[in-house]
Amino acid sequence: MNRHNSLLRTPYAVRMSHWLMVICFFFVAMSGLSWFFPSLNWLNNLLGGPQLARILHPFMGMVIFLFLVFMFLRLVRYNLPEEGDGKWFANVGQVMGGKHVDELDTGKYNAGQKVLFWGIMGLIALLLISGVVIWRPYFAPLFSIPAIRIGLFVHALAGVLLMLLIIGHIYLAFWVRGSVDSMSSGYVSRKWARVHHPRWYRQVTGEAVKKDRP
Ligand code: HEM
Predict the structure, then answer these.
(1) Residue-range domain boundaries for the chain
(2) What is the spatial distance between Cα 161 and Cα 155, in angstroms, rounded to a whole number?
(3) More exposed terminus of the chain, fewer Cβ within 10 Å: N or C?
(4) Is-above-0.90 flag for pTM?
């Protein structure tokens, strides 16, 4: 992409964290699924077989958590709720249909992306807490059997919900043409930024000074 005609949207460190985390997520999700149904047991071969998968799953889960903490710290300020988010939800049908509603004036991330952000962060926190409670042989002996049972239930539920959320995330990343550039090269075209995130566009180009001044 011609860099003169583009804007940096996602810095290198955030992109690296995202993709390293995605690789770990794939293996952790596949090994997790392998324990849901006997018919899916073969999936744990992706992590070297049942014993190795059982050992690696929680450690890789911790790596995912740490990358997400980094992403949280870098991105949280763009994902805080704002007054205009309600308007975005009210117009979600049009947005999904590819029609652009000018008065939405979306910032760096739209309200749907913010829901995804907080959903991922909330579910990973639940997975970490419940994962520690059920982590044999290190931590599980510190907890009672009923606590471990609850931990197993919460861990499985949060894992399934996170996988469903991520399926939606991947679908939307490809549905909105040009989005993947934001996480691959890090740059998006000025036109893409103006159309999808006009307020962010004005902020980074400095046009905000002219337009937003009362
Ligand atoms: C093939 C898989 C994936 C693809 C293609 C993908 C694509 C993307 C893209 C394009 C963005 C940037 C959107 C923008 O700048 O507007 C993004 C952001 C993000 N992705 Fe992914 N992603 C994938 C998997 C994952 C997974 C597995 C997770 C977490 C478990 C994840 C967590 C995030 C987070 C937290 C953000 C920041 C969103 C925000 O700040 O609102 N992604 N992803």
Answers:
(1) 12-79+103-175
(2) 10
(3) C
(4) yes
